[in-house]
Amino acid sequence: MKVVVGVILVAGSIAAACTSKPRAAVPEGAPVTVSLGRAEFTELATQFEAGGVVRARATALIASRVATPITEVHVRVGDRVRRGPP
Asked: pTM of the full predicted structure?
């Protein structure tokens, strides 16, 4: 019996929540000024420049597995690198 009453209450709540109230009529007032313009095709910029600060989402600490002095560096600051021999 309690389950049936609970189901009826839930169904009634859902039905009440899903009904929509009629919208109130917009009061008549002063007319609204509207301006018209002609649509045109135009070129859009293909590039966009902006200032800002770039920060990495993740960083990595790089260390050698063997303690050996570095004899040569094959890259410079700003070079793109990938895995493998130079």
From this structure: 0.22
Q: Looking at this protein, which amino acid is placed at residue 77?
A: V
Q: What is the mean pLDDT of the chain?
A: 79
Low-confidence ranges of the chain (pLDDT < 70): 1-7, 15-27, 86
Rounded Cα distance, 22 and 27, in Å: 15
Quick one: tokens of 61?
Answer: 């600490």
Whole-angstrom Cα distance, residue 10 to residue 2?
12
The DSSP-derived string for 15-59 is: HHHH--PPPPPPPP-SPPP------------S----------S--
